[in-house]
What we know:
Helix content is 22%, strand content 28%. The chain has helices spanning 16-27, 44-47, 65-76, 164-173, 193-204, 300-318, 333-338, and strands at residues 4-6, 9-12, 32-36, 53-54, 63-64, 82-85, 89-94, 100-104, 109-112, 114-117, 123-126, 156-160, 179-184, 209-221, 224-232, 237-241, 244-247, 251-254, 270-271, 284-286, 291-292. The structure holds flavin-adenine dinucleotide.
Amino acid sequence: MPGKFETDVVILGAGPVGLFAVFELGLLDLRAHLVDILDRPGGQCTELYPEKPIYDIPGLAIVTGQELTDRLMQQIKPFGAEFHLGEMASGLDKLDDGRWRLRTDAGTEIIAPVVIIGAGAGSFVPKRPPLAGIEAYEGQSVFYAVRKMEAFRGRDIVVAGGGDSALDWTINLAPIAKSLTLVHHRDGFRAQQHSVNQMRELQAAGKINFHVASVKGLHGANGVLEAVTLAGADKKEWQHACDAFLPFFGLTIKLGPIAEFGLNLHEDLIPVDTAKFESSTPGVFAIGDICTYPGKLKLILCGFHEAALMAQAAFHICRPNEKLRFQYTTSSSSLQKKLGVA
Ligand SMILES: Cc1cc2nc3c(=O)[nH]c(=O)nc-3n(C[C@H](O)[C@H](O)[C@H](O)COP(=O)(O)OP(=O)(O)OC[C@H]3O[C@@H](n4cnc5c(N)ncnc54)[C@H](O)[C@@H]3O)c2cc1C
């Protein structure tokens, strides 16, 4: 939910490294808010390879991208971090009192003395189909994500694509749409089989239409869509009336607004000092794939180490008058209390 929040640390990026940072900060009693453009945590692990096994996470001989994310979410549960998912971090500015304000494209503002950039290779942004004039319809009739289902109630919707997002939204929006038409360039799908089965059932029951076709053009005025041109496998074209078009053609990664944050960047990466993982801007740290230093490896385990050292340094900024005592989770009853195991 958009709003104004104050916390100890704001983490940009809910990839595996941003998630583990919550744990390391939590052990030091530092509260965190996370922002991610994706609608679920896990970054590259859940977006690019949820079912692929990872073999080099210490202590886990084999774990998939999704399982690792689920385990991290379980591990950070005691610390009650707040997630702002589906929001692009769009601006960072320094306040007069020395704290930072991170703004998102959804209007959320998070104020904290410490900012952690855990943005990986940047934000995942939807691929825009090459249709003339599509920009004019975006936000009003053309959508690359569904933020509020209610916005689609009673509309004539065209969904395009053959992956999980296209199928999931076909299934979820069908009951509230006036009409829903799925178009895909072939009669086969990359989506999970159970979603394909559900879609076929809706089609058989006459609740949705499915065309093997591609969208070739958009028609309307002032950002309000009236129809799309569809072209079938035989190249025959026809117009299909609709007032909402949802293309789901995958995601690309771009550094995005971070480039405008005024941070020192080297080839789209943030140089850090390896004692603290702080950037050259005091109070702004960088961990995981986005940071760079001599010998940096873009591995999850390296990001975990970076998160641990960052947390120690962040503590001194957030609690300048308190002493930090190094403790082991195995033997510290106060850490165990925080973890809810003592
Ligand atoms: C196919 C593949 C296989 C891999 N296999 C392994 C392996 O076996 N072992 C291993 O250690 N590593 C592996 N990696 C690399 C590993 O996935 C990365 O090192 C790891 O994901 C980095 O984590 P991160 O948290 O730094 O960044 P990411 O996982 O990239 O997460 C960053 C998050 O920040 C978000 N973000 C960025 N900018 C913004 C913004 N402006 N606003 C909002 N959100 C934003 C992104 O949406 C993303 O969710 C693999 C990578 C790939 C692609």
